[in-house]
Design a protein that fits this description.
Shape: elongated
Structural class: mainly beta
CATH architecture of the largest domain: Roll
Number of strands: 9
Amino acid sequence: MQIADNIAVSIHYTLTNDDGEVLDSSIDDDALVYLHGEGNIISGLEQALNGKVVGDKFKVRLDAEDAYGELVEDRVQVIPRSMFEGIDELEVGMQFQADVSEGPGAVTIIKIDGDNVTIDGNHPLAGQALTFDVEVVDVRAATEEELDHGHVHGEGCHH
C-alpha cells in the first residue's frame, strides 16, 4: 500500500540541521504515527512521503518555508514583566501558551532586561532548513473513527 491521503503511516526519523546536529529522532523509541493528508506533520515532509511504501528509506532536505516556516519579525515582542503575574521566577528559554496573531500558540522568553521581557512566538525551528532521514515502517488504511477525528488512534493517543 502506498502512502496517500487518509492513510495511517508510521515512520522512524532523525532530524538534523545544516550543521549536522541531531535535533530530534524516533530511533530507539516509538515510531511517529500520523494520518497522512491531515496536516499532522510539517508540509514538506508530508509531501516527500507521498507514494512511499513500507521499507522505503530516504533523506529529504526542507527549506524553512516547507518545514516550520520563515522567521516572522512581528512575533518577537518586548512586553512588561507584569504580564507574567503569579510567576515568581522568569528565565530565558521558558515557554508559555499565549494568544498570538494566528490564535493560541507557544511563546518563548528569549531575553530578560529588567522589567522588559522579550518573547518569541516563532516555532523554535523556524527559519531553519532541516533534513529528515526517514524509514517508512508501517502503512495501513485509517479507521473511520481516525478519519472522523483527523488523527491516528492507538498507543500514545490522548484522545
